[in-house]
Amino acid sequence: MSRSASVGANEVSHSLALTLRMIKWEHTIFALPFAVLSLLVASDGRPGWAVLFWVLVAMIGARSTAMAFNRLVDANFDGRNPRTADREIPSGKLARGPVIAFTVATALLLVLASWRLNPLCLTLSPVALAVVYFYSWTKRFTALSQLFLGLGLGIAPVGAWLASTGSFGVFPLLLGGAVLCWVAGFDTLYACQDIDFDREAGLHSLPAWLGSDRARWVSRGLHLSAVGLWIAAGRFAPSLGGLYFVAVGLVAGLLTYEQWLVRGGDLRRIDRAFFEVNSWVGVVLLAVSTADLYLF
Fold first, then answer.
1. Is residue 7 in some structural domain?
2. Largest CB tally within 10 Å, which of 77, 204, 230, 288?
3. Is 233:254 a contact under the CB 8 Å cutoff?
């Protein structure tokens, strides 16, 4: 390999590493377990390996392109917000060009995975992209932006169900609704950090509209709704038994702990509440439900 080619490869590798760090690739764990759970229930615990593989590829593509797009369109606001000014694009660590290329490539990855799954998934893949991209613009005109973020993640179990069955079902819709409420609830807490900036910049969020105290009550209501929808979803999954509802109880405990961490509007533990606690929600539900499917 020539020296110039080696330098070029190193630059591409460095840009990719920065992009993956920027989009917090590891947070794919938020929605991925629910897609896998939906796929397992749809297939009675026997998904084809090819279907499982392409569902995982679709999830990675959808989440990656959505986050990269968000960082692109929000770069100017991020640069003005002291909390986010050090992010890769506004700080100048990463140029827009590689991020645009990554956004397009991961969108095409979602389309490719959808094509490999079935015609309905392929037909709906532009809709999925529109939903996950649209969230990034909502904070400019509606205080319900947290709900649109929830919708972007909530379509994951619906998509996985479609990949397996080629049709819609009650279970994935209820599971997706639960994910919507759960994500909107924890993002409402996270957005409390930016109330002053959002109001000054003309951005919209539930905390900026309602204030911190009322927004935290809305967050609690959303999390309570999520638990109710998870319970309701279990009623439409004959392959799931009592352990699934035990899992829902454990998840309810995690969400209670999350709300306790930010009690009284104390946001010093918001990173633990947002990143650590929420990363366990889907994992716990999937792990216990998988045991329910295969062991009992």
1. no
2. 230
3. no
pTM of the shown model: 0.93
Q: What is the pLDDT of residue 86?
A: 93
pLDDT of residue 9: 60
First to last CA, the chain: 56
Instruction: List the one residue out of 281, 274, 249 whose CA is nearest residue 83.
Output: 274
d(CA 225, CA 230): 9
Judge whether 61 and 128 are in contact, CB under 8 Å: no
Lowest mean pLDDT among 5-14, 42-51, 266-275: 5-14
How many separate helices (H) and strands (E) can be counted in the chain? Answer: 14, 0
The residue among 165, 166, 186, 184 whose CA lies nearest residue 176 is: 184
Average pLDDT over residues 11-15: 75
Residue 26 within any structural domain of the chain: yes
d(CA 10, CA 234) in angstroms, rounded, equals 49
Q: What is the mean pLDDT of the chain?
A: 92
Contacting residues for 159 by C-beta, under 8 A, at least 6 apart: 35, 55, 58, 62, 121, 124, 128
| pLDDT at 135 (0 to 100) | 96
Burial class (CB in 10 A: 0-12, 13-18, 19+), 92: exposed
DSSP string, 111-153: HHHHHHH-HHHHHHHHHHHHHHHHHHHHTTT-TTHHHHHHHHH
**Angle ∠(132,286,144) on CA atoms, nearest 5:** 30
71: domain CATH number is 1.10.357.140
Tokens at 179, concatenated? 């994910």
Quick check: helix, strand or coil at residue 294?
Answer: helix
Domain with 172 in it: 12-295
Structure tokens at 110: 């979602």
Q: Could you tell me if residue 149 is inside a domain?
A: yes
